[in-house]
């Protein structure tokens, strides 16, 4: 700053007033222009670290993730958070811990040392977590996960709405024998999507057939096995709602092996909108998207708020949109 002052022919105090945009100081426009010209010529940059020490805060937002940076479709959480941070003139510091507890603790400590504005704590699949105690030292928002006691603010997908929407689009096409191939995993997605499936059937006055609700490993092999079981029923379904797109891929394999047409003989809806699968099956898979981008963006917006107050505890639910393609 002294170099800028010498080149511009003004005092150090005048440079400080101009660089820090202090409107209370009486500095002419000509002088301001001279200071900025000198700063540009010298390549001057504000010492952000020093400002952080003085102000007790920074324009950094921390994002601690267990694996989403290396998970293709869940990586949209980072993109949404990054875009929202940038729109609010903040920078995202991302730490991908691969679910290593020691790495997670080190990442949070580093972010606190950088005096981050707050921390986004995220998981690659929707689940309950025990948040690290250090998160409570700064404003924090959980993304794609939640605390059991809801003591921290969280942004999570609406699994029930997603399951209901998947079933409803099949009902709207006239299907009444609709199977649901669920997962063996213990997760909010398993219980929530089943609740949505049952709610849609009940609202349409369609009785649930227990033979049409299967539980399998949430992988391609599980979908293939489920497909063979459903085709072996005395009255097979005319439509199937699959727990995720990988299960739907296995369902395609079973149906194609038996010479069944999709959607001519059986319509299929998946869940996740994992583009590498859903967009490249033949026919392309109609599915429900997990709103990863919006989860990340909403988390940052909640963290920054509008009035400077800390975000309120409890869960914020984000809709899972329907992505129509050609499998129904």
UniProtKB/TrEMBL annotation:
A Pfam family assignment: Peripla_BP_1
Domain of life: Bacteria
Alphabetized GO MF terms: DNA-binding transcription factor activity; transcription cis-regulatory region binding
Record-annotated HTH lacI-type domain positions: 1-55
Record's keyword annotation contains Repressor: yes
InterPro entries cross-referenced by the UniProt entry: HTH_LacI, Lambda_DNA-bd_dom_sf, Peripla_BP/Lac1_sug-bd_dom, Peripla_BP_I
Keywords on record: DNA-binding, Repressor, Transcription, Transcription regulation
Signal peptide: none
Name this polypeptide is given: Alanine racemase
Organism: Acrocarpospora pleiomorpha
């Amino acid at each position: 700053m002294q170099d800028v002052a010498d080149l511009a022919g003004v005092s150090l105090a005048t440079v400080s007033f101009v660089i820090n945009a202090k409107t209370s100081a009486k500095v002419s426009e000509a002088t301001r222009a001279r200071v900025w010209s000198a700063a540009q010529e010298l390549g001057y940059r504000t010492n952000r670290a020093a400002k952080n020490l003085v102000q007790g805060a920074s324009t950094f937002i921390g994002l601690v993730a267990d694996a989403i940076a290396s998970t293709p479709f869940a990586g949209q959480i980072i993109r949404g958070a990054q875009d929202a941070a940038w729109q609010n003139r903040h920078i995202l510091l991302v730490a991908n811990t691969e679910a290593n507890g020691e790495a997670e603790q080190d990442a949070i400590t580093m972010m606190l040392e950088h005096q981050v504005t707050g921390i986004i704590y995220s998981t690659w699949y929707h689940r309950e977590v025990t948040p690290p105690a250090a998160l409570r030292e700064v404003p924090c928002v959980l993304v794609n996960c939640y605390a059991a006691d809801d003591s921290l603010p969280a942004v999570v997908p609406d699994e029930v709405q997603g399951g209901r929407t998947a079933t409803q689009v099949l009902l709207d096409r006239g299907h009444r024998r609709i199977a649901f191939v669920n997962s063996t995993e213990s997760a909010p997605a398993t219980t929530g999507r089943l609740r949505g499936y049952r709610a849609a059937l009940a609202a349409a006055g369609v009785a649930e057939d227990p033979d049409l609700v299967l539980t399998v490993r949430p992988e391609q092999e599980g979908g293939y096995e489920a497909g063979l079981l459903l085709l072996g029923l005395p009255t097979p379904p005319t439509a199937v709602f699959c727990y995720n797109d990988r299960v739907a891929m296995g369902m395609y394999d079973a149906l194609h092996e038996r010479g069944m047409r999709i959607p001519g003989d059986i319509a299929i809806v998946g869940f996740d909108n994992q583009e590498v699968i859903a967009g490249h099956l033949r026919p392309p898979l109609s599915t429900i998207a997990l709103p990863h981008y919006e989860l990340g963006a909403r988390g940052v917006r909640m963290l920054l708020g509008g009035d400077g107050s800390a975000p309120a505890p409890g869960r914020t639910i984000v809709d899972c949109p329907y992505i129509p393609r050609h499998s129904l």
